[in-house]
Amino acid sequence: MATLHYKSDEEIEIIRESGYILGKTHGELAKLIAPGVKTIELDRVAYQFILDNGGTPSFKGFNGFPYTLCISVNEQVVHGFPSEYVLKEGDIISVDCGVKYKGYHSDSAYTYPVGNVHSDVQHLLDVTKQSLYLGIEQAITGNRIGDIGYAIQSFVESEGFSVVRELVGHGLGKHLHEKPEVPNYGAKGKGLKLENNLVIAIEPMINLGKKSVMQEKDGWTIRTADRSPSAHFEHTVAIKKGKPEVLTTFQYIEEVLKNKK
Ligand code: MG
Ligand code: MG
Hints:
By secondary structure, the chain is an alpha+beta fold. The chain contains 5 helices and 15 strands. It is globular. A hairpin with a 2-residue loop joins strand 4 (92-101) and strand 5 (104-113). It has helices spanning 9-32, 39-52, 119-137, 145-158, 251-260; strands spanning 56-57, 69-73, 76-78, 92-101, 104-113, 162-163, 169-171, 178-182, 199-202, 205-207, 213-215, 222-224, 230-232, 235-240, 243-246. A 5-stranded antiparallel beta sheet has the order 8-7-9-14-15. Helix 1 crosses helix 2 (39-52) and helix 1 packs parallel to helix 5 (251-260). It has a single domain, classed as Alpha-Beta Complex (Creatine Amidinohydrolase).
């Protein structure tokens, strides 16, 4: 993991442009997610869309990862491979994507229901997304990294879900993964002090069942040990003038989802 690096205002603006391309990419994928779709098709669309918009996919080739997207279905938590798997009604699918633009990365993930899902699973999606925003609210100067994790963990556990410990959020910029680590659990007032012009990816990974996870034989895919469903939402966030500014966006996803209903 690359060292801690505070960004200039100009660098933050480039990451915001990168995050805009990423947000639009997610919107294109949102149009396609439905029963009957193969997850590899989403990867092809994302790859081409990012290139057509002047970016490059951050994940492809990162530590040897072979794809543009991480696609994690149901009990898969993160780092799943796009594949010939055909989405079916009742699945949930996490789509995680990164864009590199003018040398700077942005990173964002969204978990979708495929058609109608069980009400407990929908609640998991709602709580995980809400926990992301509760974490973002804590990304203010004077707070510490632990305040972000504490806000996420205390809310999620109060809803009866559990926080994955082995994977965490991260700083990013010229490198996809920079310091600091941003855990989704923690204690108030503990960890690195948050300063202006820090850019971090906040990304709660929340399980419906127990917190334990394991790695599949492909060397990448992480799934829940108890095979309960898991959700993942992520934004890239800068701290500017003391406050969080979200540099990625779900706007294009949510416009599509609203029209699907
Ligand atoms: Mg990500
Ligand atoms: Mg990330």
